[in-house]
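During the no-cost extension, the postdoctoral fellow (Dr. R.K.) reprocessed legacy sequence entries with the updated structure-token encoder. One reprocessed record is reproduced below for audit purposes.
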Amino acid sequence: MIHSLFLINSSGDIFLEKHWKSVVSRSVCDYFFEAQERATEAENVPPVIPTPHHYLLSVYRHKIFFVAVIQTEVPPLFVIEFLHRVVDTFQDYFGVCSEPVIKDNVVVVYEVLEEMLDNGFPLATESNILKELIKPPTILRTVVNTITGSTNVGDQLPTGQLSVVPWRRTGVKYTNNEAYFDVIEEIDAIIDKSGSTITAEIQGVIDACVKLTGMPDLTLSFMNPRLLDDVSFHPCVRFKRWESERILSFIPPDGNFRLLSYHVSAQNLVAIPVYVKHNISFRDSSSLGRFEITVGPKQTMGKTIEGVTVASQMPRGVLNMSLTPSQGTHTFDPVTKMLSWDVGKINPQKLPSLKGTMSLQAGASKPDENPTINLQFKIQQLAISGLKVNRLDMYGEKYKPFKGIKYMTKAGKFQFEPEGRVLQREQSWTLFHFLLVQK
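Re-encoded structure tokens follow.
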């Protein structure tokens, strides 16, 4: 299965490696570095890279590449899912998954990786089970280990590993019993200058924080479960009941976990919550250009849009920009040509705008097309797909827990394309359709 794991930072330095079977030379990562150089962005590095004797499978999270090396063909999503579990485990153990934190806790990292894989095959991937095997690092425990020479490895095998519910430890007790669920949706969209949606989809997850005594059996039902498509469940979910009744029935792990992830790709179900009016023009025989952007709410069900930021990569010919924002702050880097505008909250009564002029290089030709505008935002207490939890019930225990549901929508890759670029894309699609018909 998995022979080795390499952790690579954005600069291309291997700062940690772990081998389970034979030691694989670091030179195998040269194929990964070549793919990294060809990719314009870190997210564009291919997740599967074949080499003459190995396959390299990678995920990019928290500015770190987690690269697994395998020698035989295996289902790639199986390995990629394991790599995501590794990242989630590090984040749960250390609070944050970053290069400095991993280096500071390298002993615990190696101990955790040794338990997560047995001879290259996944063994223990549930965080609350791992915490019984390997104690999370604390300042006191670190000092004691330094003085006594002991490790964070537990003395006994977790009881959960021997039960029919391997994701939950036994004998759990809490003074305050509570179960909270976060429905988080990330919307990706490309919108043309006229405001028409070219493509839009929603990636959603339901994250849970369950701290309940004993062995509770939970059911979670939705008002509109048919919205959920391409659903991926935590192993605790009883899949047959979901297929027949569209109800989530499960015995939850203890603590934080991801209950499910889903995908909404039907564009008629994807509401666009914001709009951007932009007027970016360059004069033919002048070294000046006009820049104007206005951001406003569109379909937010009365919710406030927060954390709005606008970013745009300006053409190379732009030397400087003289802009005035109606709210927030903006910066323009004359070297990278990146314009950033931190808007904050959107007030529907007074829409935020950014207006001004652009200075172009003398004698430079007019840019072929206007820049793309990238938007980031978040909306609290709103699932943009319309998904709503109906009720949460608990069986098997007699106490009444505290229950809560929160919703949040945020932007993923949310882009407003200039008119020329959209037209070019439509022409390419027309040509593709023509060739398909001819064939």
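The chain has a mean pLDDT of 86. DSSP finds eight helices and 23 strands in the chain. The remaining legacy entries will be reprocessed before the final report is submitted.
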